[in-house]
Design brief:
CATH topology: Metal Binding Protein, Guanine Nucleotide Exchange Factor, Chain A
Helix content: under 10%
Structural class: mainly beta
Number of helices: 0
Radius of gyration: 15 Å
Oligomer: single chain
CATH architecture: Beta Complex
CATH superfamily: Domain of unknown function (DUF427)
Shape: globular
């Protein structure tokens, strides 16, 4: 078995790059898996751990509930939000999507990203993800990536 290559987020490009992934990506909420897939996309941007985007079909029926609000990404365009739901457990605005992403990011159309700090846990190939600090960015930190990462105190101007 070969060890995966360690990536420095400082080698990621700006503007970001999107790449397909066949890693097993899972999201847990309320003690159950609400999303699971081996078909996802990683968005790689300088100073940020990857953000994983999953196809909507990866989510359990009823796990995505449209939420209010929108935001704007300088690279991907306008985002809409979802609450993640597992029975009576609700993670408000814990997921987002770009229905009509900007040119260069069309592959993400309708795919859903999850804020790992707002759910029980996210895993990549069985490894538990550490959320990117700060509560604004949705990066997934695994042993595969090294920082320092934007998001924590004092990193706003990076």
């Amino acid at each position: 078995m070969t060890k995966p290559t360690v990536e420095s987020v400082w080698d990621y490009p700006r503007p970001p790059r999107v790449e397909p992934s066949t890693e097993l990506v899972e999201v847990e909420l309320g003690g159950r898996v609400v999303a699971s897939t081996r078909t996802s996309w990683r968005v790689l941007e300088t100073s940020h751990p990857p953000t994983y985007y999953l196809p909507r079909a990866a989510f359990a029926p009823g796990a995505l509930r449209p939420a209010t609000g929108r935001s704007w990404c300088e690279w991907k365009g306008q985002a809409g939000y979802f609450d993640l739901v597992a029975d009576d457990v609700v993670a408000s605005r814990a997921a987002w999507t770009y229905e009509l992403p900007s040119p260069g990011f069309e592959v993400l159309a309708g795919a859903v990203a999850v804020m790992p700090g707002l759910v029980d846990r996210c895993t990549v190939d069985g490894e538990v993800v550490q959320p990117q600090a700060g509560g604004f960015y949705g990066g997934w930190i695994t042993s595969r990536v090294v920082g320092p990462f934007k998001g924590g105190p004092g990193t706003t101007g990076w």
